[in-house]
Amino acid sequence: METPLTRNIRPDSEPFGLKEYEKVDGYRALKKAIADYKPEEITNLVKDSTLMGRGGAGFLTGLKWSFVPMGPDAPHPKYFVVNADEMEPGTFKDRILMEGDPNQLIEGIVICSYAVQADIAYIFLRADYDLAERRLAKAISEAYAAGYLGKNILGSGYSLELYIHTSAGRYICGEETALLNSLEGKRAIPRAKPPFPQLSGLFGLPTVVDNVETVCNVPHIVANGVQWYKALSKTDIGGTKIYGVSGRVKKPGWWELPMGTPMRELLEVHAGGMLPGYTFRGALPGGASTDFMVSQHLDTPLDFASVPKVGSRMGTGTMIVLDDKRCPVAFVLNLLTFFAHESCGWCTPCREGLPWTARIVRAIERGEGEEGDLAILEEQTRGLAPGRTFCALAPGAVEPLQSGLKYFREDFERHIREKRCPWRE
Amino acid sequence: MLSEAERTEIESQIEHARTRSSGVIEALRVVQKHRGWISDEAVREIAEFLGMTSDEVDSVATFYNRIFRKPVGKHVIHVCDSISCWVMGSESVKQLLARKLAVSDGGTSADGMFTLLPVDCLGACHKAPVMLIDGELYEELSDERIEKILNEIRAKE
What is the interface pTM, i.e. ipTM, of the complex? Predict the structure, then answer.
């Protein structure tokens, strides 16, 4: 089984420097991209590869790029921004890629930027990823010295400047238009779409924003071709996926596996199953803002098309497991508390609705719930649904609540009926 | 006035910026690195340096979680209380830290050494529970390990 994205990663040791990276064919894809392809041809190649955005939304990457104005009349500077603001609770895959193989990300950035003819690229790095920041900074300076970045890259006439912006920390920065406002030195509040960033993004100029894992796929598509890339996957959507599992399993961790690996294989084979004495009750398949999946869904392939068929989302592909020793109401409360805190405050339903929702769930968890509370919560999940709020934060926030009410209804009702949390002594 | 060192560092980080005001987050981070937190005076100084109003700077400073508008201890303990760490027992980590330092969430120990700050997911969920102190990530925390970490930091002072 091929693991292109993580092949150079050796946990607990220093990542490859530039020389070592070059020895394992590093920067070969960039050389090939510049020598053999026109920018639009790279975009078409990525479109044909079926690469979908790995940040959670799952949009076709090549299609996204194709909306960027090209040619002599296109406005400049154009920007390419890597979304490295990994703050989705339960998610730790981009950290692995940046700490483990920073050169791969840099090479990906240069190829992506070349495809859309960006002049300036940013890595929007979350606060607290200090190690990733140090390693990326080193890889960037080595790339400049070797002529992979800067003016006239490898004699091609194409130039690119790359900077790291380290965030001051806020979940909403992961939303691409909020991220752009943050890069402009403003409060990270989402913008209305359209206009989409490809036409009017950073400082009103054409901008593409892509997730770290997405960008890391691109050198391998260029180096090995579309057929090879599609064959990595078990589904119609090409490539591998970095999956992760956290919670009370025997071997919490991450694995690069074919896209479409079934949930059961991830949980029972790679994560080793539940710890002795703990029983699986459910899991959020792709971070805090995805709906629960439960035992009956274990044979679902984890990919962008299959997970929605059982009412959830692929999200970031990093799973959080709920076991029988943890209260599902308190589990949902932890998530809602996070989202209420991280609401940017811009639109009323999210700013007011999430704290209200969290307060009700907190009351239930404390044994102070009332008859009718569950009906209010259900109404809230509808009131905060897609289309009711300015961005996707609140709709994501209520996903675990709406599915929690469905799969763990008896637990919610028991809290209200018995006026206590059965998980507390 | 911003110090010479602060001004030089901010300039080097924002020299490529399209507008000076777009470097305000960099400026806040630099000043906080030097002073530990962002006072009203610091807000005014940054505003003047970048050609912004104090309110514009403060609207940014108050928005972001990692900009401190109140004084903090010498070492800020960022203890993760998001979902994966919670499943793995972050409440007892928080309780132990609160007891050891005699503080509640957001509080600073009497000796000014530590501020205890629960934070959002630190992105190391397979090693939960975790905390971050001075840019160093501490994983798979247990009571003994936490005591050892605190003692080591104190011993270095």
Answer: 0.97
